[in-house]
Design a protein that fits this description.
Elements (H helix, E strand, L loop, with lengths): L7 H10 L4 E5 H14 L7 E5 L6 H9 L3 E4 L2 H9 L7 E4 L5 H10 L2 E4 L3 H9 L5 E5 L6 E3 L2 E4 L10 H13 L4 E5 L11 H20 L2 E6 L17 H16 L8 E4 L3 H4 L3 E12 L3 E5 L8 H5 L5 E3 L9 E6 L8 E8 L7 E4 L20 E5 L5 E5 L4 H5 L15
Parallel strand pairs: 1-18, 2-3, 2-11, 3-4, 4-5, 5-6, 6-9, 9-10, 10-11, 13-15
Antiparallel strand pairs: 1-12, 7-8, 12-13, 12-17, 14-17, 15-16, 18-19
Helix pairs in contact: 2-9, 4-5, 8-9
The structure holds pyridoxal-5'-phosphate.
């Protein structure tokens, strides 16, 4: 079962101050989860999580994770700028980008971030732009299919990221000849995995590769970055990943492969986004209309601009009608937003308790890749983001957009002035 972290009474109290729709995050949940992750990898001396900023780019969230010991994983200039302003610097920052613009690369270099190259041509690109740092990471793409438990999880062979195996060996030789001292390797082979075997399997691949790279190129490999991809179960009846089992699975591969090769001092990094935040965010929305035509529709004041995943990927997000947690789910609804797009549906043919106008709906697991993927189609405005603090109080951590924000980038002096605040 999925239980919201706010009650109906709490939601009503919040809504009296901050109208729906909004995203709200659960500080206590975020902190406990981060602590458990660190416990699960405490056997590895240099272990660190670099939170994937793109999942939830909000300085207040970054600060909470910073207090829990996390660094940040950035892939763009503005993510680097936000991280810089939150006090991350140097080895607190992993820069895992692709199709990297010059100014983004320069900023990462200036901040002293760990730079994770996406392609062999980026060696020259980085060298000509900034020179080469002491430590360089390279992203590996093994090609083909990535399988777990006889099931294809993803197709790295179709993915735009990373070096081929041959390029990785060549790249390490080139970097070494150019004076790079320390090396890291990185791979992201499957997204949102709900199995305790993904990281251990990926670790085995990267650990074996690291031993070969060391033997063949003499590179001093200090870091192995398992990246993101450990997922969360969005479905109420599928069990969540067990981070302690995942940590132990990686530990076993480490002891079997790296330790005997004399590489027991390698530090492991992760770049989790979804796993760190998704369950600790709700999109809270009100039913503003009901419609009875060939199907039963519930119209919400949130839309796909606030949460794109269902429209984009057909993703399931669980829905709780607050105050009706124990009511029978005996009504079949399409739960929709107001975009002029028929895929603007948070749920299709979903069995829910009877929903009335004014009911408050919690859409679960929106803490990662939720607000972040928002957009302004149909002139819809981005919602507020709120933080439910450990003491039960609620803090506005990003205000809702206003029409003035929406019109501000036009340069039709005189035409829209009436709606743009000075
Ligand atoms: C998206 C991304 C992540 C985070 O992925 P999650 O699925 O949210 O864990 C980490 N690293 C890189 C390079 C990414 O592109």
């Amino acid at each position: 079962m999925k239980t919201p972290f706010i009650t109906k009474a709490k939601a009503e109290e919040i809504i009296s101050k901050y109208p729906t729709p909004f995203h709200i995050y659960d500080e206590a949940g975020i902190r406990k989860n981060a602590r458990d992750l660190y416990k699960a990898f405490s056997w590895n001396k240099g272990y660190r999580e670099f939170f994937a900023v793109k999942a939830t780019p909000n300085p207040y969230i970054l600060n909470i994770l910073k207090e829990e010991g996390c660094g940040v994983d950035c892939s763009s200039l503005t993510e680097l700028m936000m991280s810089e302003c939150c006090g991350f610097s140097g080895s607190d920052i992993m820069f895992s980008s692709n199709v990297t613009p010059e100014e983004d690369m320069k900023k990462a270099f200036e901040l002293g971030a760990f730079i994770n190259l996406d392609d062999i041509t980026h060696i020259e690109f980085l060298e000509n732009l900034c020179g080469l740092p002491e430590t360089v990471f390279c992203r590996f793409n093994p090609g083909g299919h990535f399988e777990l438990e006889n099931k294809i999880m993803d197709d790295p062979g179709d993915a735009k990221y990373g070096f081929t195996r041959e390029q990785l060996f060549e790249g390490f030789r080139i970097l070494k000849a150019k004076g790079v001292k320390y090396f890291g390797i990185h791979a992201f082979l499957a997204s949102n995995t709900v199995t305790n075997n993904y990281y251990p399997k990926l670790a085995k691949i990267l650990f074996e590769l690291a031993v070969e790279l060391k033997n063949e190129t003499g590179a001093d490999i200090r870091y192995i970055n398992l990246s993101g991809g450990v997922g969360v179960s969005y479905l109420p009846d599928v069990p969540q990943n067990d981070i302690f089992a995942i940590g132990e699975g990686v530990h076993k591969a480490f002891d079997e492969i790296l330790v005997p090769a004399g590489m027991g001092n390698v530090a492991l990094f992760t770049e989790l986004g979804r796993y760190m935040l998704a369950p600790y965010g709700h999109l809270v929305t009100k039913c503003i209309h009901q419609k009875h035509i060939y199907k039963e529709y519930i119209g919400c004041d949130a839309c796909a601009c606030n949460l794109m995943r269902p429209a984009m990927y057909g993703s399931y997000h669980h829905i709780t009608v607050l105050g009706k947690e124990d009511a029978p789910c005996d009504h079949k609804y399409d739960v929709t937003g107001g975009l002029c797009e028929n895929n603007d549906k948070f749920a299709i043919d979903r069995m829910l308790p009877e929903i009335n106008k004014g009911d408050i709906l919690v859409i679960h697991d929106t803490g990662a890749h939720g607000f972040a993927m928002g957009y302004n189609y149909n002139g819809k405005l981005r919602s507020a983001e709120l933080l439910l603090k450990e003491d039960g109080s609620v803090q506005l951590i990003r205000r809702a957009e206003t029409p003035s924000d929406y019109f501000r980038t036009f340069d039709f002096t005189g035409i829209l002035d009436k709606y743009i605040e000075k």
